[in-house]
Specification:
With 464 residues, this protein is an alpha/beta fold. The chain is built from eight helices and 22 strands. Pfam families: BAAT_C, Bile_Hydr_Trans.
Length: 464
């Protein structure tokens, strides 16, 4: 079926079952001859998929050599608008394939099949400091991909798209269960994969902003791992009683997983980002309760008063506030807060005592934490202790601090509210869009492989 474009825009958005192909057919006027040529179909497949799954975008039967702009548009949950776009030229058959053809300009360049997602940026005129973060993982991230004639870079609302498709990016695969958890006074959400289990599990910790962040845990469950998203900084007891949690809060979360009837209690890992890395390393080394099968740490450090509580660790960071830098754009840089690496063993986790496989993921352009410098010291400590065979280190030259699941738009700078002071400030996270996107895709793939190896076991998948 083909529709002719007259004076008004005609857009057909088909809603199909979960994770399927969506096709849209319309007509495209030839810019060279003024004749009508059929654009049939405009394909995005799968149109419904997990956030970390690639899609293919294909335009057929356009005018040979036609100049087209492909644009993505996303309205975030707080109603902020985001866009990305690429400039393309169709081949001699009037075909355009984002998996093969170059973007000549726009928010990304080159052959970038997922550029319409990872290069999303706030539309011109938006407030400063925005960041895409999913709060309701039970509904998808919706992105409209549109085709325009010519190479456009602005004022898209003043032009008529010749075709459009709605793409849904899900954080929960069909059958994944989301279960709020209150046992042990936890503020947490458990995500269970489809089926009876028992499943290996991951205790998922985010950073110093606090709050219950679920989108990474829901993706892990979509890949076969039970995952517990844990709020350990702004949880209900902290808010109601005004006191930080003790280390046994993490042990209680571990016990909850260990005792759950659908979880394989001997196959539990921890995953931390930023301040979550501090707590993951601390518990992996010093807890007598938590017998972790493996640990994954993103963008963090082992530097902390090792006998301190969460509050004492936070206070240690605050004592070094004079090392904070502010650049010409009034963006806060906390990179030097923990530097130089202390020699005092009481101020850094004894990495020589790590007994489980450890994956470290760091961006060399992290402007928020000294993650790369810390990783080099961790590597040296483990080599000296003879346990470096347990370490897998991934470093990415152009990645910043916020290394998230694949195709999440890169955020170099954003507004941030610390859990300790609740002060809102503009923070420089670092990273360059293309290099950061590559790091997110590669590290996520290797994180999933790491968990499969050490939680399922290459020879033991069937017995989990």
């Amino acid at each position: 079926m083909c529709f002719s474009l007259q004076s008004s825009q005609i857009t057909l958005l088909l809603l199909l079952p979960h994770f399927t192909t969506l096709r849209l057919s319309q007509c495209l006027f030839s810019p060279n001859h003024g004749t009508k040529t059929t654009l049939c179909p405009f394909v995005c497949e799968p149109s419904r998929a997990l956030l970390d799954e690639k899609f293919k975008v294909l335009v057929k039967n356009a005018a040979p050599g036609a100049e087209l702009t492909l644009r993505s548009f996303h309205q975030a949950e707080k109603n902020h608008h985001w866009e990305a776009f690429g400039h393309y030229v169709c081949d001699s058959s009037g075909t355009l394939n984002l998996c093969e053809d170059l973007s000549l300009g726009g928010t990304y360049e080159g052959v970038e099949p997922m550029g319409l997602l990872w290069s999303l940026r706030p539309v011109p005129g938006s407030k400063a400091g925005l960041r895409v973060r999913k709060t309701n993982v039970e509904i998808p991230m919706e992105v409209t991909i549109s085709v325009y004639q010519g190479h456009l870079s602005e004022s898209f609302s003043e032009h008529t798209a010749v075709a459009a498709v709605l793409v849904e990016r899900w954080y929960m695969a069909p059958g994944v269960r989301r279960i709020p958890v209150t046992e042990y006074n936890l503020t947490a959400t458990l995500f269970l994969p489809p089926g009876p289990g028992p499943f290996p599990a991951v205790l998922d910790l985010w950073g110093g902003g606090g709050n219950l962040v679920e989108y990474r845990a829901s993706l892990l469950a979509s890949h076969g791992f039970a995952a517990l998203a844990l709020d350990y900084l702004t949880n209900k007891l902290t808010v109601s009683e005004g006191r930080m949690m003790k280390n046994d809060y993490f042990e209680d979360a571990y016990k909850f997983l260990e005792q759950h009837p659908q979880i394989a209690g001997s196959r539990i890992a921890m995953l931390g980002l930023s301040f979550g890395t501090s707590m993951t390393l601390k518990m992996a080394v010093y807890s007598e309760v938590m017998k972790l099968r493996c640990a994954v740490c993103y963008s963090g450090s082992h530097i902390q008063p090792v006998k301190g509580s969460i509050e004492e660790i936070m206070n240690y960071f605050s004592e070094n506030q004079e090392k904070t830098r502010i650049n010409e754009n009034q963006e806060i840089i906390w990179h030097d807060l923990l530097l130089p690496i202390p020699e005092d063993p009481a101020l850094k986790v004894d990495m020589g005592r790590v007994q489980c496989p450890l994956l470290l993921v760091v961006g060399e352009d992290d402007q928020n934490w000294p993650a790369y410098v810390s990783a080099m010291d961790i590597k040296a400590m483990m080599e000296k202790a003879g346990n470096s065979h347990l370490l897998t280190l991934l470093t990415y030259p152009n990645a910043g601090h916020l290394i998230e699941p694949p195709y999440t738009p890169h955020t170099r700078t954003s507004l941030f509210r610390t859990a300790q002071t609740r002060h809102l400030c503009m923070v420089l996270w670092g990273g360059q869009p293309l290099g950061h996107s590559r790091a997110q895709e590669d590290s996520w793939k290797k994180t999933l492989a790491f968990f499969r190896e050490h939680l399922y076991g290459r020879k033991n998948t069937a017995d989990v």
